[in-house]
Amino acid sequence: MIHSRRTFLRGFAATLALPSLEAFGQIAPLAKAGAAAAANPLRMAFVYAPNGVNVAKWFPTGTGKDYQLGQSLAPLQHLRDEFQIIGGLDQSMANANGDGGGDHARANATFLTGCQPRKTAGADIQLGVSIDQIAAQAIGARTRLPSLELSTDEARRSGGCDSGYSCAYQFNLSWRTPTTPAPPERDPRLVFEQLFGSGNDKMDGRRRAYQKSVLDFVMEDAANLQRKATGSDKAKLDEYFTSVREIEQRIARAEQFRATVPEVDSPNGVPESYAQHIRTMYDLLALSFQTDITRISTFLLAHDGSVRSFPEIGVREGHHNLSHHKGNEGNLEQIAKIDTFYSEQFAYFLDKLAATREADGSRLLDNTMIVYAAGIRDGNRHDHADLPLILAGGRAAALQNGRHFQAPVGTPMTNLYLSLLDKMGVPAERIGDSTGRLHGI
């Protein structure tokens, strides 16, 4: 049976979400603009950078408001009032603690759980529930997706990886239960469909086959909504629809590029550049928050131990090999270039959130708390204490930005997570190795 355009329209109109609008004072699906929803909800995201950093060039000097950014964070200079750097936070469960090698697997596994993974390469994995899933279990029913998991790596749930640890530990940040990871998605097209598809694989496949935009199936409803919108809402809707279509077109171009290159020659997937891949994922994450499709997300920029090279910035040796720098200045300079590259992409994301307005005129960045961090401090030492960590956004949650805050030595990173859950309105007494709240953030 051939579906009519009206059938498509109904299917997609029911799922395409919109940004908050003054006319409605809330966020709602296009076909349900009058439905009840919370205004300016608080969102929370976690971004993971692999293999540690060049400590001398990443960490700031001084504390409080008068601190100086490290050289590797220079791309964030214009945003320094939008984040705080928090020092002194540890992931002690990522240490060997009698289990021998495997720091990269443990770095990823403990990052959001604060739990020591059982050392196994088999199916008997055991870890803990991650902070994002604790939040998703409490408030995820309020949105279409309880949480959104992103990566630029292929998800792996089994097999042996680092020193006898299951690949599940090293390629997943999010854990729904102690034995069940929530695998991230690396393909922007599949993320797009997850966010904006109809949920009907046959209908979505037919639309893609005819190279139709999601928006082509909702333009009648959109036109009706725009006629009722205020001047500022009209501009916001136009900006939103343009953003959605640009992302879809960018994904389509990347897929066309991939089609011309043998899979074996394109291990990093699409888009063709790593920077573009990251930025497309950041764009999709921003849209998922803007439209209230989800309020909780994780983004694994690359798994710890990643051997990715960065030819676009002149770094042709693998990141993991460089991280074992042995004090070599040339290697350290290459690491600093990689650190700066990741900072540039994070600055792009923060700028995107800052430029996106809610219905009341506040910025999406103000209503979003973002943790950007690594699970290893110095790749040469494989240490997990005083980790690199930026806490950005969240002015609506009274986060104290524009400073370098030094937590007491030995503070578990999970103490910060308990404080973030408090701000999300999610009750929790403990996460992994937490010993209490981190006050003063």
Tell me the major beta sheet: 7 strands, mixed
The CATH architecture name reads 3-Layer(aba) Sandwich
| Percent of residues in helices | 25-40%
* Derived structural class: alpha/beta
Salient structural properties:
441 residues, alpha/beta, Alkaline Phosphatase, subunit A
Structural features, described:
With 441 residues, the chain is of the alpha/beta class. The chain has a single domain (40-191, 268-424), classed as Alkaline Phosphatase, subunit A (3-Layer(aba) Sandwich). It is built from 13 helices and 9 strands. The chain has helices spanning 5-13, 55-58, 103-110, 131-139, 167-170, 188-196, 201-209, 219-228, 231-259, 274-290, 319-323, 329-355, 413-424; strands at 43-48, 83-90, 148-151, 175-177, 180-181, 296-300, 368-373, 389-393, 403-412. The strands form 2 sheets. It has a 7-stranded mixed sheet, with helices on both faces. A hairpin with a 2-residue loop joins β4 and β5 (180-181). α6 packs parallel to α10 and α10 (274-290) runs parallel beside α12. The longest helix is centred in the middle third of the chain and has 29 residues, at 231-259.
Describe the secondary-structure layout:
Elements: H1 5-13, E1 43-48, H2 55-58, E2 83-90, H3 103-110, H4 131-139, E3 148-151, H5 167-170, E4 175-177, E5 180-181, H6 188-196, H7 201-209, H8 219-228, H9 231-259, H10 274-290, E6 296-300, H11 319-323, H12 329-355, E7 368-373, E8 389-393, E9 403-412, H13 413-424
Parallel strand pairs: 1-6, 1-7, 2-9, 3-6
Antiparallel strand pairs: 2-8, 4-5, 7-8
Helix pairs in contact: 6-10, 9-10, 10-12
